[in-house]
Amino acid sequence: MKYESQRVAMPYFIFALILFAGQIVFGLILGLQYVVGDFLFPEIPFNVARMVHTNLLIVWLLFGFMGATYYMVPEEAQTELHSPMLAWILFWVFAAAGTLTILGYLFVDYATLAEVTMNKLLPTMGREFLEQPTITKIGIAVVVVAFLYNIAMTALKGRKTVVNIVLITGLVGLAVLWLFSFYNPGNLATDKYFWWFVVHLWVEGVWELIMGAILAYVLIKLTGVDREVIEKWLYVIIAMALITGIIGTGHHFFWIGPPEYWLWLGSVFSALEPLPFFMMVVFAFNMINRRRRNHPNKAAMLWAMGTTVMAFLGAGVWGFLHTLAPVNWYTHGSQITAAHGHMAFYGAYVMIVLTIISYAMPIMRGRPYGNSNTAQIVEMWGFWLMTISMVFITLFLTAAGVLQVWLQRIPESGEALSFMAGQDQIALFYWMRFVAGAFFMAGLVVYFGSFFIKGEASPAEEVRGPATADA
Amino acid sequence: MAERFTKSMARNIYLGGSAFFVLLFLALTFDTQLRAMPERDNRDELTEQVVRGKHLWEENNCVGCHSIMGEGAYFAPELANVFDRRGGGDTEVFKAYMKAWMNAMPTNIPGRRQMPDFNLSDSEIEDLAAFLEWTSKIDDNGWPPNIEG
Fold this sequence. Notes:
The structure holds two protein chains of two kinds.
Chain A: H1 9-33, H2 46-77, H3 84-107, H4 110-116, H5 134-157, H6 162-178, H7 188-223, H8 227-248, H9 261-271, H10 274-289, E1 293-294, H11 298-321, H12 325-331, H13 335-364, H14 373-409, H15 419-425, H16 427-450, E2 462-463
Antiparallel strand pairs in A: 1-2
Helix pairs in contact in A: 1-2, 1-16, 2-3, 2-5, 2-6, 2-13, 3-5, 5-6, 6-7, 7-8, 7-10, 7-13, 8-9, 8-10, 10-11, 11-13, 11-14, 13-14, 14-15, 14-16
Chain B: H1 7-40, H2 48-59, E1 67-68, E2 71-72, H3 82-87, H4 91-104, H5 122-136
Antiparallel strand pairs in B: 1-2
Helix pairs in contact in B: 2-5, 4-5
């Protein structure tokens, strides 16, 4: 850690991980409700648990991105953070607002929550992933703007690197697109169209810039490969992400009202969306092969490789599986979508945040070359348990989805099973998904355990040839 | 990557490519929203009652279990075509069905998925029914493949 103010990333990372644990607990509740329908009913109905599960994910990833930014930007800019105090204030504001919102979901009836937060004045609630009360949405906007101010002031007074520029571009995009969450017309078709401006253009657009920047930063640090090479890759990857992903939004416009030309545009461009993820895999493995140093933080290296592979599989391959309009006609809104969603979010965004945490946390804890060997081995056990469990969650949901499509979607009206009759038929796969989810939880516990293992920090590394000044 | 491919070339592809596709996306959005959608989304019938129904749909977080035009949660049936599935395409039949259904919830059958009782009044249920009927008439390229959604 070269600048004292980078340390403000620590509370962000810790809080992100706490929320991550909450997300998984609610994931297990949901998984069980799929097969034991009345589990925790009426105390925690499915819709409440789902809202908690998905909103915790979004919020903890935002905490992770913010922590990553506070850690990376000062070091890249070679200057202290503009205002560590502001970063701390925003941390507490965001943590309090996030916690209150989740508690509101759990302990207040949703319609009552809408009433007491005066949703009528500016109705924004009750849309998937955008369930937050309007006041929380405004709070998120304010926190993000103040955060961007702090970051911009830092970046502007120092060295302007490509990593910083790309990261900040992604974050500005995130903030601007968030404004669409406030637009909720009475026309459902219009509402849905612009809802995707937040949801798709975040996860298949600007978030890829954030992911690319974090990955590039970690690879510069871990491999010592010349910055020029890494920055060139980063530009090509994010170019591909936006060139395919922006018009690729069209794969959501097939069946919600927009005209037929989206069937073609959405199919063609989204079929190319795996490209940037494939390039990230090639990028990471290439840089590691060409490394100029053997960084002793092997766990961080594993996360960096893992995130590219899993993002390619989850977002790329599983996305492609059902993105072509003639396929999507049958699979839209089935468990195939759920399978893709789980692996894509885990691979791309959960794992990139865990990558930067794995790299930065030991440094902030006074272990510049990584945790002790034992701690790293335990962390890598956590990595494998969680990652393999997620692969199985995805496979079981895919099997459930294929069966669902076969029973409920492909036969003609009259022949097809009703939704609930179909669900009964695929219960076995839901049970297996639940078991895989329990293993994921076990992996998370092991991962958390790795933070509490003491022992000698990793010694300084062996340098292969002259390391660059940056690394 | 070959040495001839420089960082500034990569940057130009990024800037030029994304600027072009942002503009194209905006143009397509204007065409979709201003030209195409008025023909497709049945907006002439978008009454105040339908909008009230949409807000009820939102304020009770219906999308937390159900999907509508395939979007939402996959825990409970698709509802963009429930007007056709359960109402047979008839407004009065559908209203009657909705009232009977909403008032029968939750079933409390052990082990089965449960829908909460949302304590809606009869007129609120009619608003919700109007919203679902209106939604069923959006031209969504014929999705879903069959009546089961």
